[in-house]
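Subject: Protein entry, chain in single-letter code together with its fold tokens

Category: Structural biology, sequence-to-fold work with a learned token vocabulary.

Notation: Tokens come from a learned vocabulary of local backbone shapes, not from coordinates.

Start of record: The labelled sequence and token lines come straight after this line.
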Amino acid sequence: MAVHSITGDSSSLVELREISILFAEDDTSVRTHISRMLTPVCGELYTAENGRVALDLFRRKMPDLVLTDITMPAMTGLDLARQIKLERPAVPVIIISSHDDSEHLLQAINLHLDGYLTKPLNVQQLFANLQQQAMLLRARRLASQQSRLLSGVNMAIQYLLSADANQDAVDFALQEMAKAARADKIFLYHYQDAMLGDREVSLISGFAGGEMVLRFLDGAEPDMPELPYLERWHGLLSQGKSISGPRSAFPAEERHILDTMRVRSMLLTPIFEEGNLWGFACLCDMKRERPWSDAETSMVMTAARGLGSFMGRLKLEEERLEARKSLELANTQWRETFDTIPDMVMVLDTSHQVVHINKAARERLSIAESGPKSLIGPCFQHVHGASHPLQGCPHSALLKDHQPHETEVHIPHMNSYFHITVNPTFDMDGNLAGAVHVARDVTKRREMEDRLRYLSTHDEMTKLYNRAYFEAEVEQLEKGRVAPLSVVIADLDGLKEANDRFGHDVGDGLIRAAADLLREIFRAGDAIARIGGDEFAVILKGVGEELLAIIMERARQMLDEGGHRSEHGLKVRFSLGSATTGFPARLQDAIREADMAMYEDKKARKLKENELSEIV
């Protein structure tokens, strides 16, 4: 397989670094060549020499995207794609096929595959397809991450609102902060003024892997990390700013602190008590370096604001009311954050009832803030206008297995497609409490996919079917039982002369006029295709010799009348040939016979024109 190489700026392929790719190709040289280009720009690359090995790798490695050739030993690319879509429908699959391999085009479209590339492989098109799928995967991950963060922070804030100001409430909120951000460890540090005006940083409590490693006010354990006082950190935290990033993002003089803690990435969020910096929450990743997203930072800081209302007030009964007021403010801030999310977000209970709903969802579903139209019922009633959950409802599936689910659905009354994710929420005892339901409008993406599917089977200039579709249709009909079948081959006369004399714009106008005339001659259900620059083909299903003769007579009469002209005034003229077969398996023979008849018609027309010119 030939590969058209390009040189490109790898910085434009940043999305690929976040995904893993499985590449299946039986040609060793091609597999090696493409692997060398993909390895530096993607997160992880797995290669396979045939479909069976690729399926085994897919099940073990769980890649984000699959790129596969069609023709392979042991298992074809289409069989591999079909099995992948059965096991993990959301995984994008891009197929590579021979340029003239029309046999598999419609099968690939019917499988709803995510890309179709032809050989010789153009690397620029390959990377464009990969980057597009990487962007879609990134959007899905962000939606899932956002849902998880919403669930965790909502749990922490709501519990602090309902609980007394005590140690258990702080411990629970701290743990939920770590779970929401998927941090390996979380510690609570407190700034204290020491003698001689010095300032100290004291470790108060912490969790590792979701388990308590230090109880609040119990005193530090010997193996717990102690942080020195750092002026830079204190200055930024005092301004209400967070500090985050991988180890490499911190100044050199601070990296030894992270090394002592064996930390690869860290996020610090300030905690204020009565307007003064009390301390900070420190979230740590021990195995990976990562930048902390704005969503993660914002959500963790929201939870930290609620946590701050408890600091210094533990076991002080007289200050409980003030703590509750502070938490109400934190809940308002959480609500404001909730309402800034552009996707439709709903918090559901275990009976499908909507517990919380954000501004975007209220507006799309016409649910008012107050009044008769503000009543919130089950999600299926508002989203689908149904009286019960629909088949395939992701929330119903979550209620059965307590696992996250996602799907894409078309909602007719909103005339939109939505990608829906649901993530479970649990109470203090680990029982399922409900779910966070996030619906993202993907209508524009679906329209783009429909457009790409249309372009793969249609000629853009004439809006007729293209050669690839025509060949695929012939393959299907040869295997079917529809008979008789008739074929018409039409060659547009005078196109070269129009291009040479008037330019290609005039020639293109003549081609479009020819397509319009063919639509007028033949039936709406006939497959009319542009199979070359000036060549067209028509397949007439169920049309025998007698009906074909009538159609061809009408076509020649319309051509002789000469009434059909292009937008530039050029007359549309065709050389026509036709044939009929009663056996679908012999459709190719009929096509060749019609093609030969067309050339005979062209010669006869030229001979007649020459005789007329000699007479003149």
